[in-house]
Amino acid sequence: QSYRDGNFHVWTIGADGTGLKPLTKGAFDCREPRWSPDGKTIAFSSDRGGRYGVHLLDVASGAITAFSSGPGDEFEPSWAPDGKSLAFTVDKVRIDVQGLDGARRTVAKVKASADRFNAASVASPAFTPDGQDVVFTAIENGKAELRNAAGAVVQGEDVFPFRPSWLPSGAFIY
Question: What is the pTM for the complete model shown?
Fold first, then answer.
């Protein structure tokens, strides 16, 4: 993503630094791009509908379609390994998974807090390599944890809200 014109937009560029090409434009932000596993689609969050929602960009045609349609701000999309669904953050207090077929479920939730010094939030969802679970960062009671739906994945460690990634061995880094 780039902020070249005063709004965030999605771009592609060659590994050698050549071929810079904008894929989105307009008077709205397009951020947090994630390539689909098959490389044909980019999921990203944008306020092009008046609030942040997840959108899909067909790389071949350039066509953009709205993916999510909930009442809150939806951002930080993450593809399932099979490319059939996305996990994303809703209003910073919920992680939802929605299939390309429209089926949607909540996999994690924290209680919203008006206390800005001790706010609860969730961020950075990522599917496990087998696609059976979603790992995310949760901040509650002044502590940040890496969690899945069952609870803390890492015990006794305060973590930054970065999206975890998996190594071929199955171990993860964050």
Answer: 0.89
18 DSSP 8-state letter: -
The gap between the terminal CA atoms of the chain, to the nearest Å, is 21
Phi/psi of residue 123, nearest 5 degrees:
-160, 165
Beta strand 134-140 pairing with 143-148: antiparallel
27-31: long-range contacts (C-beta < 8 A, 24 or more apart)?
30/1, 30/55, 31/1, 31/75
**What are the pLDDT digits (tens) for 20-75?**
999 999 899 999 999 999 999 999 999 988 899 999 999 999 999 999 878 889 99
| CA 81 – CA 95 distance, rounded (Å) | 17
Query: What tokens appear for 128 in the block?
Result: 């496990």
